[in-house]
Amino acid sequence: MTSSVSARNLGSPVLAELADTVLQPGFKGTTLPDWVRKRLATGLGGIALYSRNLAEKGQIQLLTAAIRAENPDVIIALDEEGGDVTRLEAFSGSSRPGNLALGAADEPALTEAVARGIGRDLAEVGLNLNYAPVVDIDSALHNPVVGTRAFGSDPELVARHTAAWVSGLQSAGVAGCAKHFPGHGATAVDSHDALPTVELSAAELAATALLPYRAAIAAGVRAIMTGHLLVPAYDAGSPATISARLMTGLLREELGFDGLIVTDGIEMPAVSATYGLGGTAVRALAAGADAICVGGENATPGVVGLLRNSIMAAVADGVLPEERLAEAAGRVRALSAWSAGHPGAPAGEGDAHAAVTAARSALSITINTALTAPGVPHVIELDAPTNLAIDPATPWGLGAPLSALVPGTTAVRLDAPGDAELRQAVDAGAGRPLVLVLRTAYRDARLTAAVDRVLAGRPDAIVVELGVPGGERPGAVHVATFGGTALCCQVAAQALAAMLRT
Questions:
Q1: Helix or strand or coil: residue 260?
Q2: Whose CB has fewer CB within 10 Å in the chain, the N or C terminal residue?
Q3: Does residue 435 surpass a pLDDT of 50?
Q4: Tell me, which fold does domain 363-501 have in CATH?
Q5: Radius of gyration of the chain from its Cα atoms, rounded to whole angstroms
C-alpha cells in the first residue's frame, strides 16, 4: 500500500485522518460524549466499549447507532469472551460457559455454537469486532491473568477450540481477535500490572503457544491482539507489542497473518510505564501493529488528541514511515468492509442449548465419601482477588442459585477470614450439609489454608471449585465447574440440589 500524504507537518488533513483511523479509544458513560462525536466525524476509525458503557440491549443499540451516525465505517469493539470476562452480561453473569469449561467438555461443535451465539448477540447490538477469543495456553501454575479464560493447558486442545470459536463467532459477521500474541500463558506476571517475560525458546513457543495462532489464522481470524510481553527468544529488548521481530517477522512473515493487528490497551503499565502512551502507539505502529487500543480511565479527549498528534509528529519526523501508517489504516478499513459485507448468521435456538450442554459436560463431580445425610445446606463462599479483566460487578457464587432450588439455604461470603470468623461461619451450618465454594483456590495459599481448616472439623463438607481446579479433589464430594459464570454456577447448583434431596 502507498500513501497520498505529501505534507510533512501536523496540519495535513490526510495525515490527521490516517492517524485517527488507527485509533480505538474507549470513553466513559452510556451515551456518546460530544468529544467522541466530533472525532468520529473527522475520521476516528474505532471505538472500544466496556461494561461501563453498557446498560441493556436497547441502550447499547442506541449507542452504537449514534456512533455509526457520525462514521458509518467505524469499528466498534468489545471484549466479550463469554465466560468470567463478560461485558454484555457483566451485571448478571454470563449465560454461557467460558473457555476453560468449553475445553473441559472438549466438543468443538459446542464451542462453535457457543461462539456463534456470542456473535449473534454482538451483531444484534451493532458491534463488529470482538477482542476474543483468548487463545493463551494455561501452562504456568501461578499465572494470574489467564486461568478460566484459556481453553486449557494442552496446546492441541487449545488449537482445535480456537478454530471452532473463531469460526462460530465470525459466522455471525463479527470479527474475531485472537489474543494475547505470542502467548500470555507461560508467565507469572499480569501485564495489567507489569511487564511479564516469556522464558521459552523459539522451538518451545512453536510447539506450544503458537499452535493456537496457526489454527486461528487457518480458520480465517480477522484480527490478532498483541500481548505486552517480553519474549527474549525473539527480542530481548522490546515487548511484543512494539517489536518488529515479533509483529512483522514472526506474525506476518513466518505465520502468514495478513489481517488486523490490534494492540492490547496501551495504558497498561507493562508498556506505558516505560514508553508513555504516545511513545507506545508510535512504536507499535512502526513494528507492524495496525490499530491502537486505549481503554480504562485513560481514554480522554486530551489523551486521544495526544495519540493522534504523536503519530502525526512521528510521520513528519521520519520516525514512522507514512507508508506504514497508510498500510495500517488500510487494514482497519478492510476489516470494516468485511463486516459490512457479511450477511451474519440466522437466528436460532440451538446455540443456547449448546451452552447448557457444554456446561453440563464440563461439570466434574468426585465422590470421596458418601454424604451422611441430605438436607438444607449452609454455603460458605471464600472470595479471592481476580485479575483486572474480570469486571468486579460480575456476580458469582452458589448461594443464590442454590437458595432458589433448595428453600432455606443460607449463605455467607468471606474474604481472607481469620480463624474466629471462619469458625463462626462453619458453626452456623452445624447439623446441616456444608458447602464450601471457591475460585481457583490452589493459586491462593489463604484459600487452601482456609479449606484445610474447615475440612479438619467438617470432613463431610462439599467443596465446589468455580475456577481452575487444583490437583487435589478435597471434600466428601468435590465439584469442579471450570468457570464461575452464571450458567456454570446454575448447573452446579442443580447437581447439588439433586444430591441434597436424596
A1: strand
A2: C
A3: yes
A4: Rossmann fold (3.40.50)
A5: 24
